[in-house]
Design a protein that fits this description.
single chain; 290 residues; alpha/beta; TIM Barrel; 8-stranded parallel β-sheet; 8 strands; 42% helix; binds 6-hydroxymethylpterin-diphosphate
Length: 290
């Protein structure tokens, strides 16, 4: 599944300032749903490295008109917040999930809110805060450490009364991790998936892709799609992305290839079954190369 990102902030690292007016944000939300996202994830406070926190009133003032304008959206909305006050208002306004990038460290009471209301809860791993997280990116065994921290946060949510099916986990790519650390987490994502909770993952346009490819955020679309496909193959359930259309197309092509049973196709061709034969040539559109 794809969770399309909508940041209603002036300062997000990739789409900051593009959707900070409600009209533009609401139009983008509808577009994200049309392009094939299963979830819309709305954030009103940037968590890019070094970002300053936003007061709850300001965060809610950014979110409220957008949530109101997207009330009839055909897909569920998650709200990317770590503040109980904001989360409570968002749930009242119809949000189906809370995406907490601190995995309950900022406010453990978010677990009680999810237990009371039944909304989904995404628990993401981060070391420190956005201001401090890139100061120390050294780990012993990064996948084991991240998995252990997510297991503890999940236990806290279960102890607060959440049902297992309500809780998703996310390794938090780019949050207090080096280039190699991010790549290793993606390569070993199956170990996070072994926790048994749905896995979210968000490589989209992040700076580790920039470090790998030597390009700025707007030129990281292809790298982001490649990282998403690699994550899906290793057990990710939800891909949190800016570029919904491109990611959807890549997943659809991969899905169509995976749906072919190679052995069946060969056997069918040998038996003269049309399923194994080449499809008939399609008539060419006038002057077109298709
Ligand atoms: N990444 C960002 C924000 N929220 N939530 C989850 N579950 N997983 C992530 O990887 C994740 C997240 C950062 O990306 P973005 O929202 O595009 O930028 P900013 O924080 O600058 O608004």
């Amino acid at each position: 599944m794809i969770a399309g990102i909508l940041n209603v902030t002036p300062d997000s690292f990739s789409d900051g300032g593009r959707f900070d007016r409600p009209r533009a944000a609401i139009a983008r939300g509808w577009r994200i749903a049309e392009e094939g996202a299963a979830i819309l994830d709305i954030g009103a406070e940037s968590t890019r490295p070094g970002a300053d926190p936003v007061p709850a009133e300001e965060e809610w003032a950014r979110l409220e008109p957008v949530l109101r304008g997207l009330r009839d959206l055909p897909i569920p909305v998650s709200v990317d917040t770590s503040k109980l006050e904001v989360a409570e208002r968002a749930v009242d306004a119809g949000a189906a999930a809370i995406n907490d990038v601190t995995a309950l460290r900022a406010d453990p009471a978010l677990a009680g809110l999810a237990a009371r209301t039944g909304v989904g809860l995404v628990l993401m791993h981060m070391r420190g805060t956005p201001r401090t997280m890139q100061l120390d990116t050294a780990y012993g065994d990064i996948a084991a450490e991240v998995r252990g921290a997510l297991a503890d946060a999940r236990r806290t949510a279960l102890d607060a009364g959440c049902e297992p099916g309500q809780i998703a986990v996310d390794p938090g790519l780019g949050f207090g991790k080096s280039l190699d650390g991010n790549l290793e987490l993606l390569a070993r994502l199956d170990e996070i998936a072994a926790l048994g909770a749905p896995v979210w993952v968000g490589p989209s346009r992040k700076s580790f892709l920039g470090a790998l490819l030597g390009v700025g955020p707007d030129e990281r679309v292809t790298g982001s799609v490649a990282a998403s496909l690699a994550a899906a193959r290793r057990g990710a359930d939800v891909l949190r992305v800016h570029d919904v259309r491109e990611t959807r197309q890549a997943l659809d092509v991969e899905g169509a290839i995976d749906a072919i049973d190679a052995r069946d196709a060969v056997d069918a061709r040998r038996a003269g079954d049309v399923r194994g034969a080449r499809p008939p040539a399609r008539p060419q559109a006038a002057g077109g190369r298709g």
